[in-house]
Amino acid sequence: MTKLLSDSAYLLESLPEIWFGLVVVSLGVYLLLDGFDFGLGILYAEADEAERQTMLAAFGPVWKANEVWLVLFGTVLFAGFPVVYANLLSRHYLLVFAILFALSLRGLGSKLREERDDEPWVRFWDACFVVGSATSPFLLGVFVASWVLGTPSALAAGPFVIGVTVVALTIVLGAAFLGVKTDGELRARVGRRGQLATAVYVGLFVLTAIVLYGRYPGLQSVLLSGSTVAVVAATVAFAVGNVVAIAHDRFRIALVSAAGIAGAFVVFVATLLYPQVDPAAGLTIADAVVSPLPLNMTTLVAAIFLPIIVGYFVFLYSLFSGPARPEESYS
Amino acid sequence: MTDPTLTTALFEVGPWLSFLSPELASRAQFGWAITIHIVFAALSVGLAPFLVYFTVQEVRTEKERYARLRKFWTKLFAIGFVMGTVTGIPMGFMFGTNFAAFSETAGELIGGPLSFEAKMAFMLEAVFLGVLLFGRERVSEWFYALSSVMVALGAWLSAFWILVVNSWMQTPRGHEVVMEGGVPIAQLVDPVAAFFNPRFPWMYVHMQNAAIISVTLLIAGVAAYFVWKNRDSEVWNTALRVAVVVLLITSMFQAIHGDLYAGHVEETQPQKFAAMEAHYETGSADLHIVAIPTELESFTDPRADNLYTISIPYLASFLASHGDPSYEITGLNDFEYENPPVAWVFWSFRIMVGLGFWFIALGAWGTYRLWRGGLADDERLLKALMISAPLGFVALITGWYVTEIGRQPWIIQDVLTTAEGVSPPLTSTEATLTLIAFVIGYILLFGVFLYVFKRLVDEEAERHEVGIEEDDRPDAPGVTADD
């Protein structure tokens, strides 16, 4: 207890590393959960009106809660590494606002399309929903890549290819999620899209590794290390699992394997970064972490509330489990 | 310093977009964003207790009228929550994008509370709002009512942590400033002193009550509209009765509390207090109840001595010092640092206080009518309530201007100036570009919100005309979830 309120020692010696892990995990959970939503929003483009109702019913109860993980990621980074938060966001000024704009289009589109019935209105907000759902993961991928690689430009090869890879990943996730939430024709089609997206994702992932190897000599040793090999092996294994599970109409297993693919991606990103937290500014975890008292305090709060948050999500997803009911909209 | 390709492209239009300094553009952007965001934040905070009341009454009494009120206001709450999220998330990120130096200095103090908000409040609200909006048929009646309590708790906790951060910036405590690599860092040494700093309780009570007043006026205005259209509407007469009583109580409380709050501001931020009264010469001060400018210049540069005022001599001194009429109030001429924009602070303060008295009058008028009978028949009262529906938010925004503009030039009082807190790499062009985008984007957003709100009201009005209004069917087969 005295250590908890200590202003000279971290609760655990490795607390800064643990907090780095927490940053990565909250980013990963965000990628996973909002990944469903982005993928759903992209697959929405080719759905007919009845299917769209079903998709919105699957999306409606959960997306707000999913999106909170982005805020959680931001504030966890801010609380643990305020210098990184400040540097990273001010360095990617226009990109950050572009991401926020894309996310707003997605959120408003899905909500506002329900407010009126006439064609032009519904079409307009549907388009916003689709465009927002496709551009958000791309820009988020670009942002994460520019962070990890220390390259600020969206048009540099590394960030661009990672952005596209993240888009493919969200389609993998969205298809698996929709497969669980729907049935019949729609499920068959999103299944096929999911399989295709998985194949494309694996290809893009390999392309990413090649581009990084060629363009970022500093990363060559990491890319050849055991951890990268493990990540690639895991990605391939989960991808095969995903495709096979969809072929057998086992979408719960597909969802788990899709989550595995996303998890492998996040681990990959974390290995590229560690032990740095802001390569462009040359900051390591030890340089950038806050002093012991605030970190001990926020750790205590996180230790209490993260399990509660996990509880909320288990509750929310089980309450709205099973096929989405299109007739079930705002009561 | 950001994206070189984009920056090159912007270079062409750069000169056209760089008429504001990064500091001014960032301040304008943050100020504009919060002007819009605070409306939705207050809508959440203020509407939440009403939703709890309607939902609990619905479950307890099974009366259709509460179900109707719950449905109507939950829809508005849901739209407000989406808008609040859409406008709120950028604000958190603006700490990093626009005020990176401030984030670096204050990170230890404000990073924690912001993460607490996300973990404790935002999650709770988002998850249970999902239940409230979509889960009517999936959970039991009482669990449904409990969800409304959880949403309310989330909204209030959210405001709690945000105001912890804000009040610390007004009366910073519990930290020590050390220099690290030429950058001042406020290190946290006493979290209790920092979080429960002197300003916090004042600000929290005043703000939460202001949110309730704003929403009460909105409910009263909407209810008055429907009652005006259909005097016998049981649903909206119920809402009207509740609203006028709540308005009277909360607005009277706000006046008393606000007066004491001003005394606290005088003690802790005397420069802001002087700006609120446009008090330039040090000495005892009168209280100006009404101030009318006699020339155009007084709008942009108000000086209490030059205005036509109705004043009570020495009362400002008397109130600020809790009883000493000759108490000396430092004038704006005698502070070491530059003054905040006095006109904004002075006029905002007058608008807020003036509206506050109007709300008390409205609450008293309505409650009197309720007591003596004829609440639904008093056309003049109904019209006054309709016109006043948005005014609570006006008072709230102007009150926020007093707080936030009044503390300039400080971003953290006596620790860091706003100019020092701006992101070093930020260019005028970037900041001006996003400012313009925010101005246009939020005007459109707010327009959409008003449009959706109007449609909700129209739908409800249609229901009146076709006569599906009649309610209170105790033997109705439960309360249906769908409209």
Short description:
The complex is a heterodimer of chains A (331) and B (483). Chain A has 331 residues and is mostly helical.
Q: What does this molecule look like?
A:
Chain A: Its main location: membrane. The complex is a heterodimer of chains A (about 325) and B (about 475). Chain A is mainly α and about 325 residues long. Chain A has helices spanning about 15-45, 50-60, 65-80, 80-90, 95-110, 120-150, 155-180, 185-215, 220-225, 225-245, 250-275, 285-290, 290-320, and strands at about 275-280, 285. Chain A has a two-stranded antiparallel ribbon with strand order 1-2. Chain B has a two-stranded antiparallel sheet. Chain B has helices at about 5-15, 20-60, 65-95, 100-135, 140-170, 190-195, 200-230, 235-270, 270-275, 295-300, 315-320, 340-370, 380-390, 390-405, 420, 430-465, and strands at about 175-180, 185-190, 285-290, 310, 410, 415. Residues about 470-483 of chain B have low confidence and may be disordered. With about 475 residues, chain B is mainly alpha-helical. Helix content of chain B is about 70%, strand content about 5%. Chain B has 16 helices and 6 strands. Chain B is globular and about 65 Å long. In chain B, helix 2 runs antiparallel to helix 5 (about 140-170) and helix 2 packs across helix 14. Chains A and B meet through helix 3, helix 4, helix 5 and helix 13 of A and helix 1, helix 3, helix 4 and helix 16 of B.
Overall, the morphology of chain B is globular
Poorly predicted ranges of chain B: 471-483
Q: Write down the overall mean pLDDT of chain A.
A: 89
Evaluate the radius of gyration of chain B.
24 Å
Written as H for each helix and E for each strand, in order along the chain, the element string of chain A is HHHHHHHHHHHEEHH
Strand content of chain B: 5-15%
Oligomeric nature of the chains? heterodimer
Pairing-aware structural class of the strands and helices of chain A?
mainly alpha
Number of strands of chain B: 6
DSSP helical segment count of chain A: 13
Biggest sheet of chain A, strands in spatial order?
Answer: 1-2
Biggest sheet features of chain B? 2 strands, antiparallel
Helix share of residues of chain B? over 70%
What share of the residues of chain A lie within helices?
over 70%
| Radius of gyration based on Cα positions of chain A | 20 Å
Question: Biggest chain pair contact, residues each?
Answer: A-B, 68 and 76 residues
Assign an overall shape of chain A: globular
Total number of helices of chain B: 16
Distance between the termini of chain B: 53 Å
Membrane topology (chain A): Multi-pass membrane protein
Protein name (chain A): Cytochrome bd-type quinol oxidase, subunit 2
Subcellular location (chain A): Cell membrane
GO molecular function (chain A): electron transfer activity; oxidoreductase activity, acting on diphenols and related substances as donors, oxygen as acceptor
